[in-house]
Specification:
The protein has 7 helices and 5 strands. It is α/β, with parallel strands linked by helices.
């Protein structure tokens, strides 16, 4: 539904297949089980990173990813590299669990959320600073940008 609204309001609304096949990092936050599956995995670039920031685990088909990978290994704590169908690497953060809720092996929940918000803010900072040079970005009206930016005191 939001895709249709965005189209009618003249926002850039690329096809999901185009987005998936050209993205280095895919962040889901849908709350929908297995929203990404084998057809989507087949489109991913080599080295794509999958991050679930939704409220539910397994927003992509985690079991299928394991099943179709010829090899997998943990490259960092909480980061698994899959050799999907033997021809591409897919990196999965937090085992398809909600990364914002489980990252930080020895951290308290407050510290985990602090790290999550810090990472999100740094990501937004990068997007705002570099939006003109990034392809596939949806331009937000100035009013919308101002409503999400925190102004210094």
């Amino acid at each position: 539904m939001y895709y249709i609204i965005a189209k009618f309001e003249a926002y850039q609304s690329p096809d999901l297949k185009d987005v998936i096949s050209s993205s280095d990092i895919i962040v889901t936050a849908t709350g929908i089980l297995n929203i990404l599956g084998e057809k989507d995995f087949d489109l991913l670039k080599d080295g794509t990173i999958l991050v679930n920031m939704g409220a539910q685990p397994n927003e992509w088909d985690h079991d299928l990813l394991k099943e179709k990978s010829v090899e997998r290994d943990e490259v960092f704590t909480g980061v698994t590299r899959y050799h999907y169908k033997g021809n591409k690497r897919i990196f999965e953060l937090a085992g398809s669990n909600s990364a914002n809720l489980v990252i930080g092996e020895f951290a308290t929940p407050f510290e985990v959320m602090d790290l999550t918000f810090s990472a999100a803010i740094k990501g937004m900072e990068y997007l705002f600073a570099n939006h003109e040079s990034l392809s596939g970005m949806v331009e937000l009206p100035q009013k919308e940008l101002e409503s999400v930016l925190v102004k210094p005191l």
